[in-house]
């Protein structure tokens, strides 16, 4: 078995943890498999815990990194146009907040296919760090220098020796992937210049809980952040959260700015969001007591809707094969009998089977000639974009089933 169970909180190191959601055993959601290899698939527990000391919501069953992020990693940030637009705007925001000179260095941890760094190549020096070689190669083809491997304190020292310290370090949708946060923050402290800023974007717990986005729970996502435990984490390293922003990506995310303590004022956004979290109750266990029941109710409703259509002889397919879609498909127990196929724009995924549910992934081109009766929108975070893009398909009679935050047919 290549997973282990951790007994202490990743941020505060205390052991007072309560399980708030159990989704059963799931295969890693980005391991799209080839037909014939279904038997080789491993499943691991997918349980979410709340830390009663620092309020961090997290997974404690850790699948080995090499099983999750490898030479065949299926996630390419640039596959979704709205996400590329998001990173373009993110780059503009960073440039407005921080004046970058041409010899300043920007380092992106988990740089994927260079989706953020590509917007800085004319502004300053950029360096990506990406453990999945197939994804890193795409960034290199765009001319973005990219280091292989996982970011560590040792790697930070090597970078400083070769390139100097960084003015900005970013880590988007990867800070939640890290088991050993201490190692990362130590590395960030080494790499970051004294006037530099570390910026992370992660899915936001407040959005997750308020909009029932429980499908975003999967083995790669070890932490479901709110501002409170992040303040606690940086404090332990004599750093501080200096500003926070809510952004719309992935169903609602937080962008967190952290820096070395230099006695500079903290933006009011930090206290404001902390107070909002407190009011919403996400710093206490009681807010999560119905989480399991609510997730199961949504699942039961979705299963009855899809199987109801199938009983009527209707053809049901799915749209988008994001990682979270696999949590949802597997939690519902859907198979190819329920969902005929999933369409996705990512070339890597096309021709493979979804992990666990083993539904074929096909090119969206099929929807030019075929009109399914119902299409389950797994990429619900792009709801408006996709409903708009597929106006013609909907005119032909296809109805979309939106699963999150509640089951809805449009
Ligand atoms: P993401 O939510 O993690 O960005 O993943 C979205 C997935 O959905 C990704 O595999 C690409 C796919 N997708 C489509 O197939 N069609 C679309 O129009 C969009 C926006 C995404
Ligand atoms: Zn804790």
TrEMBL record:
<feature type="domain" description="Methyltransferase putative zinc binding">
    <location>
        <begin position="9"/>
        <end position="69"/>
    </location>
</feature>
<dbReference type="InterPro" id="IPR013691">
    <property type="entry name" value="MeTrfase_14"/>
</dbReference>
<protein>
    <submittedName>
        <fullName>SAM-dependent methyltransferase</fullName>
    </submittedName>
</protein>
<dbReference type="GO" id="GO:0032259">
    <property type="term" value="P:methylation"/>
</dbReference>
<dbReference type="InterPro" id="IPR029063">
    <property type="entry name" value="SAM-dependent_MTases_sf"/>
</dbReference>
<keyword id="KW-0808">Transferase</keyword>
<dbReference type="Pfam" id="PF13489">
    <property type="entry name" value="Methyltransf_23"/>
</dbReference>
<dbReference type="GO" id="GO:0008168">
    <property type="term" value="F:methyltransferase activity"/>
</dbReference>
<dbReference type="Pfam" id="PF08421">
    <property type="entry name" value="Methyltransf_13"/>
</dbReference>
<dbReference type="Pfam" id="PF08484">
    <property type="entry name" value="Methyltransf_14"/>
</dbReference>
<feature type="domain" description="C-methyltransferase">
    <location>
        <begin position="249"/>
        <end position="405"/>
    </location>
</feature>
<keyword id="KW-0489">Methyltransferase</keyword>
<dbReference type="InterPro" id="IPR013630">
    <property type="entry name" value="Methyltransf_Zn-bd_dom_put"/>
</dbReference>
<dbReference type="InterPro" id="IPR038576">
    <property type="entry name" value="Methyltransf_Zn-bd_dom_put_sf"/>
</dbReference>
């Amino acid at each position: 078995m290549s997973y282990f169970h951790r007994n202490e909180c990743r941020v505060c190191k205390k052991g007072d943890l309560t399980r708030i959601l159990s989704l059963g055993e799931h295969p890693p959601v980005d391991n799209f498999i080839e037909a014939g290899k279904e038997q080789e698939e491993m499943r691991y527990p997918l349980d979410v815990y709340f830390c009663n000391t620092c309020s961090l919501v997290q997974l404690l069953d850790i699948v080995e990194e090499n099983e999750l992020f490898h030479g065949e990693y299926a996630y390419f940030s640039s596959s979704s146009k709205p996400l590329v637009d998001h990173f373009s705007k993110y780059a503009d925001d960073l440039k407005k907040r921080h004046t970058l000179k041409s010899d300043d260095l920007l380092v992106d941890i988990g740089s994927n296919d260079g989706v953020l760094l590509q917007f800085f190549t004319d502004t300053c020096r950029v360096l990506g760090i990406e453990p999945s070689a197939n994804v890193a190669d795409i960034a290199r083809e765009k001319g973005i220098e990219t280091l292989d491997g996982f970011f560590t304190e040792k790697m930070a020292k090597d970078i400083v020796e070769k390139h100097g310290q960084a003015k900005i370090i970013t880590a988007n949708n990867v800070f939640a992937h890290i088991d050993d946060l201490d190692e990362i923050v130590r590395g960030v402290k080494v790499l970051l210049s004294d006037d530099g800023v570390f910026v992370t974007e992660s899915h936001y717990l407040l959005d997750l809980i308020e909009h029932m986005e429980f499908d975003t729970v999967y083995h790669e996502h070890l932490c479901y952040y709110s501002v409170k435990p992040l303040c606690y984490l940086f404090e332990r390293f004599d750093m501080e959260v200096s500003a926070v922003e809510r952004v719309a990506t992935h169903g609602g995310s937080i962008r967190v700015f952290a820096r070395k303590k230099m006695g500079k004022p903290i933006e009011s956004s930090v206290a404001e969001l902390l107070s909002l979290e407190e009011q919403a109750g996400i710093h206490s266990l009681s807010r999560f007591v119905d989480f399991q029941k609510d997730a199961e109710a949504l699942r039961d409703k979705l299963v009855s809707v899809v199987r109801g259509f199938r009983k009527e002889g209707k053809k049901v397919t799915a749209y988008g094969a994001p990682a979270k879609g696999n949590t949802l498909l597997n939690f519902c127990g859907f198979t190819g009998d329920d969902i005929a196929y999933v369409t996705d724009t990512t070339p890597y995924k096309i021709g493979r089977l979804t992990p666990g549910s083993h539904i074929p992934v096909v090119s969206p081109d099929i929807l030019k000639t075929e009109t399914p009766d119902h299409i389950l929108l797994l990429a619900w975070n792009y709801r408006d974009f996709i409903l708009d893009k597929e106006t013609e398909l909907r005119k032909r009679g296809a109805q979309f089933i939106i699963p999150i935050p509640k089951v809805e047919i449009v």
